[in-house]
Amino acid sequence: MTFSIFDYNKVKFGNTSLFKRLQFYINKKDRKMKLKDSTVLITGGTSGIGLEFVKQLSGQGANIIITGRNPDALNATKNEFPKIQIFQSDVSKPEDIKNLYTQVTQQFPELNIIINNAGIMRNLDLQDASLDLEDVTSEIEINLSGTIQMNHQFLPHLKTKSSSAIVNISSGLAFLPFPLSPVYSAAKSGIHAYSQVLRLQLKKTNVKIFELAPPATRTTLMSAFSNDLDEDSAGPVMKVEKMVHIAIDGLLSNKYEIKPGMSKALYLMGRIAPHFFLNYMNKTIEKAKEKKKNKQ
User: Fold this and answer.
1) Does 166 fall in a domain?
2) Does residue 5 lie within any of the structural domains?
3) Taking all residues of the chain, what is their mean pLDDT, rounded to a whole number?
4) Residue 31 sits in which domain range?
5) What is this structure's pTM?
6) Catalytic: which of 184, 194, 256, 267?
């Protein structure tokens, strides 16, 4: 039995023909992201990965809006990049997100890309009784809940655009947890799962969902682990400039899951033998701690 294009046009999925449904998916996949003249909102844009996105997206001709909690850091970034727009906002506070949405969409209705970069990473001992109930989950509130709430607030606006995107920043540790950062690893694993389902639910819209899973990257976040890790146990650390360059290439080529450097290896480790590699990582960290302790 053979079918012509006219036969496929008669096959219905709800009120839409199979041909039109396939045509929509193909067109969406083929439409490359255009960063030039796009308006991009970057949370946590004053340092690290967020700041490097500011630098490189400015070079792509994008219009940049950044948020942050520290007004001094925001003003310093504005001085370095006079063309960007700054807003003081905390993604862990729903009221801040609501106010940010109102201000940004009124002043910059052309907004079409959000990069959920704001986040913290901590070395946590889960047996530390001094951690209060709010503090112990702060990485969940900022890294995971903040991302979900930002997307939920801005999604209706993004859906009105002919081409729009959300970039969720997870981590290579979403695929294999880091023993020193249990809550951070859990939050980033949550972002990975959330991004996969969000992409599925938005497949009939013009909103593209990207996930960037950075490996260990040379930013201020890494300094928190200097007391526990030496260069040998830390593994390869990617320069932030290279990591963001790879990320932008992924956006421009519609690579929806971007895994630079060691993140690819962590993904495979988490698929092939997660318990083995987690235990191996933990033993390596314990040896590094003992080595540093003996030097003191």
Assistant:
1) yes
2) no
3) 89
4) 11-295
5) 0.87
6) 184
